[in-house]
Sequence to fold (130 residues):
Amino acid sequence: MPLLQFDTSVEMTGLEKQEFAATVRKLYSEKMQTGTSHVAVVVRPRTPAELSIGRETDDPRLLFLDAEIRTGRSADRKREFALDVMDAAARNFGVPEPNMKVVFTEHDGESMMGYDRVGSEWSADEADEQ
Fold:
């Protein structure tokens, strides 16, 4: 039951935010071998003055992802997802590679809840269950 929270100085319309969220949800599903119905995505617009990274370019477009996920995915799987998300942001919004960052925070399954369920431990068979 991941919560994928983006803070970005990229100006997006409501439709662009929805389309980006759908892309991220699909990438998460593919890379993390799970369904999409429980993947929550937040896109928060920020002014360039509200975001900073030491290596940023002169381009004011920045994008940071705080990915709250269940424990159990390999570092390689997480890296593939992070790169795919950053590639999508570069392709769709022109965010320079040095201006992006992804951070994963992992939680036990029972720490992740929706109204209708409490998460469980992740297994590779989960994609078939969703």
In short: The chain is about 30% helix and 25% strand.
